[in-house]
Amino acid sequence: MQTLRSGSDITAFRSEFDTAADSLLSALEAVKPKASVVTGFDRVESQITETLRTEGSVTGADLPVSDLEEQFLGLYYRKHMDEVDFDPNVPQLVMAGGGEEYTVDVSVAFPEGGPEREVTVTLSGSTTRERRCRTPLVAEASFEEVPYGEYTLRAEPADDSYGSVERTVTVDDDISVGLELAEVSLRDKLCEGVDIDIDQILPTISSRFESRFEEESYLSTEMSFPVDSEYIPCLLAVWAQREGHDATRHDGKVIVYDTERLRKEIENVIRYNLDPGESKSYDALRGNFLSAPVSDSTVQELVRGRASRMSSPSNRPSSRKRNNHDVRVR
């Protein structure tokens, strides 16, 4: 600059000015990448940290930038030298000891005690893990060496009487999570996600349901009805509830049946087709005596209900009558 001020020859002045301008532009071009890195580093730093905690390493390809990857990684290294190692040839940052891993302990509780019931616990995120448990009340599941990150924790009971429960958790340390299952009706489960107006569609199909029920003594999703098959399970469950019938799910099918009729049919089998101590298979009952192909567990409930009523003092048979209680269904 001093040379420019003291110059008396206009030609020499221009030459010196052009040289100074070129030098300044070169200096600005050299500084520009560093300025870009410094300006955008705050946005990139958090993503580098998250990836390191999850994966244990970060390469230039992992960054949300199109160039200057080495400069971004190098600046991160200079700020976190005690935590990571830097290889500029890749370029790559590596967390000392690898990515973070923790243990997730899960307890799943039914609302009341009972027989052993199955529940599947799933942890899904950067990795997916699954545990199947059986418990009368509280199930315990443990997931070890889970990488740092956000996960969806889901408990799915096998019993249709209970709904699934889901929670989002952040695994940034060893954690314990409690999930509580709640009773849910089969209707609610079958109608979840159904995107039609049931109150508008049901009146147009109810007469078909009623006539078929009178013919067959039950309804099933295996039967054909003039409605899209995806809506039939929900429609059957709603119709059953409104008509005072029961609905169950068995072998992937929804079955609507008359509980009182089945109960009387089972009582007739026990009273007239079995001697004390004899047994009969579920398939034989369904094939020869019952008006609806319900599940084994439904038959068991009906048999237990019959035995409970018959064992009350007012229903006990006299000594002259055959004892109809000593029967088994296999």
Average pLDDT works out at 82
Rg over CA atoms, rounded to whole Å, is: 37 Å
Helix content: 40-55%
Structural class: alpha+beta
Number of helices: 9
**How many strand segments?**
17
Unreliably modeled segments: 27-33, 310-327
Query: What assembly state would you assign to the polypeptide chains in this entry?
Result: single chain
Region (Disordered): 305-330
Biased composition (Low complexity): 308-317
What's a quick, concise take on this entry?
The chain has 330 residues and is an alpha+beta fold. Helices cover 41% and strands 27% of the residues. The protein folds into three domains: 2-95, no CATH class; 101-184, Immunoglobulins (Immunoglobulin-like); 188-329, no CATH class.
Features:
single chain; 330 residues; alpha+beta; Immunoglobulin-like; 3 domains; 4-stranded antiparallel beta sheet; 3-stranded antiparallel beta sheet; 9 helices
Textual characterization of the structure:
The chain is built from nine helices and 17 strands. It has three domains: 2-95, no CATH class; 101-184, Immunoglobulin-like (Sandwich), CATH 2.60.40.10; 188-329, no CATH class. A hairpin with a 2-residue loop joins strand 14 and strand 15 (253-257). The strands form six sheets. The chain has a four-stranded antiparallel beta sheet with strand order 6-5-8-10. Strands 1-3-2 form a three-stranded antiparallel beta sheet. With 330 residues, the protein is an alpha+beta fold. It is elongated, with a radius of gyration of 37 Å. The chain is 41% helix and 27% strand. Helix 5 crosses helix 6 (232-243). The protein has helices at residues 2-6, 10-55, 69-79, 186-191, 198-216, 232-243, 259-273, 282-288, 296-310, and strands at residues 57-59, 84-87, 92-95, 101-109, 117-124, 128-135, 138-147, 149-157, 162-163, 165-171, 175-180, 182-183, 218-220, 246-250, 253-257, 279-280, 328-329.
